[in-house]
Design brief:
Blueprint (H helix, E strand, L loop, with lengths): L1 E4 L3 E5 L8 H10 L3 E3 L3 E5 L5 E10 L13 E9 L3 E5 L6 E4 L3 E10 L15 E8 L7 E4 L14
Length: 161
């Protein structure tokens, strides 16, 4: 599906009745790993400020998916419970989108690539794409960032003189 992302963050929620304190989630995500969760909701901080035409693929696996980490620039993992058969994608100021997902407790891998800069300025369609993989898990995977994208070095700024 194609979704919109604003303010450099998005959430995935497995239960709309879960009413997390998004300010606390955002603060916790910015402390270190750029990800924070409550069990039913996860917030991810991403490199771009916004992307109003962002491809997002949601995959449900029967077992942990292959670790194709070399194909992705940002990678996160966490645990998430889904109740009600729907996973909701959300981002500030944009309409939420839903995806059918069977109820259950999942391990989640969130991967992104195609970044051009961190933050703003930028484009409203910078070209990044994201994938969310879910698999049944009894373990409570900790919120963690596996890979972080770093902008390419631009070199020293020439000095006038």
């Amino acid at each position: 599906m194609t979704v919109a992302l604003d303010y450099g963050q998005f959430t995935l929620s497995g239960n709309l009745d879960d009413d997390p304190d998004f300010t606390t989630l955002l603060r916790d995500a910015h402390v270190d790993a750029h990800i924070a969760s409550t069990g039913h909701t996860v917030l991810v901080c991403v490199p771009h400020q916004n992307n109003f035409r962002m491809p997002l693929r949601v995959e449900v696996w029967a077992a942990p998916p292959p670790r194709d980490f070399g194909h992705w620039e940002e990678i996160f993992e966490c645990a998430l419970a889904v109740d009600g058969g729907e996973l909701w994608y959300g981002s500030p100021t944009v309409e939420s989108r839903r995806c059918e997902v069977p109820d259950g407790r999942y391990g989640v891998r969130i991967c992104g690539r195609g970044f051009v800069n961190r933050g703003w300025p930028g484009s409203t369609t910078p070209g990044d794409v994201w994938r969310v993989q879910l698999w049944p898990s009894r373990r409570n995977l900790p919120d963690r960032r596996i890979r972080a994208w770093h902008p390419p070095e631009t070199g020293p700024v020439p000095q006038a003189g």
